[in-house]
DNA sequence: TTGGCTGCAAAAATTTTGCAGTACC
DNA sequence: GGTACTGCAAAATTTTTGCAGCCAA
């Protein structure tokens, strides 16, 4: 499923003075199999076939792979960053703030934005894994489509007392 | 400084069955004074004048204010979400992955993107506090401006050994 | 060989919760 | 007066580190 535009991981690692180890390859494969995943998910996937791989190794591996550019990460949900395989088709994420669903969208839709920002301030946007927050079609109430419209969650405030934590589905 | 388009916080809270307390007002004021801040920064700012306000209160307050739409949050850096006052001029953030600097940009530059996404999938983007990651002008090396170009941090991999954690300036 | 990498376990940092008292409506 | 909110302290999580042995190159 994920054999997009392969990159020679080993070579890239070596070029940076790092090494290509079994664990690193395992993490890379797990990620490309999963498409995108959090540290936990990734650790679980790797440990399915290599139980001794420790969580700290996954953390350190991801950090290294990220530094070398073999993976990227975005912040889809609160605390935990979500990692992506560079080997994967570049895409951006649409994160629904209401139901938590994560959908993908072609990066092309944001090409103009990148250009505009570049022109306006010289900043170069990394679109490969941009995350857009908002409301998915099914959660969007019949409100005008003004993207600047204040908080989308205004009228359905919590009943009272404990504030309901928004559901947290993470499947794409 | 930050008396943009005011919102009646008390009213909005009450409308949701919540209450307007001194602590909540303090958090709101601190946030509007700071523009945007993490939980820690906010707690510090609040505690400067109200030392007894506990960190857990800040967490719970932010959660409540967010649910009611009086504040929003984005994920500028790794773990900690950054909160924003709705009272503030809407803007998006340009986060440099190299030096960590955070700059602001007018939301207008992304209006078309919102429309395109809306059209493509029915998803309504909340642009008010979008975060774009990439390279600021001073950190962008002389590379072609292809926003799809693989990882921007490819050739300057860590010397070896411990991977240098990117600096973490958070001033806008 | 050499020095980067890994596993294990402990330490640190970050968030969340339980409760009894307090304050807002 | 009823009930949401707060502070404090403890509990639960999530990440980071120290080290001795292991393994790519």
Question: Would you mind describing this structure in some detail?
Answer:
2 copies of one chain form a homodimer. The longest helix of chain A has 14 residues, at 55-68. Chain A folds into 2 domains: 1-88, Arc Repressor Mutant, subunit A, CATH 1.10.10.10; 90-143, Ferric-uptake regulator, C-terminal dimerisarion domain (Dna Ligase, domain 1, 2-Layer Sandwich), CATH 3.30.1490.190. Helices cover 33% and strands 16% of the residues of chain A. Chain A has a 3-stranded antiparallel β-sheet with strand order 1-3-2. Chain A has a 3-stranded mixed β-sheet with strand order 5-4-7, with no helix packed on it. Chain A is α+β, with helices and mostly antiparallel strands and 172 residues long. Chain A is globular. The interface between A and B is large, with 71 and 69 residues. Strand 6 of chain A pairs antiparallel with strand 7 (131-135) of chain B, so a sheet runs across the interface. The first copy, chain A, binds a DNA duplex (25 and 25 nucleotides) through helix 2 and helix 4.
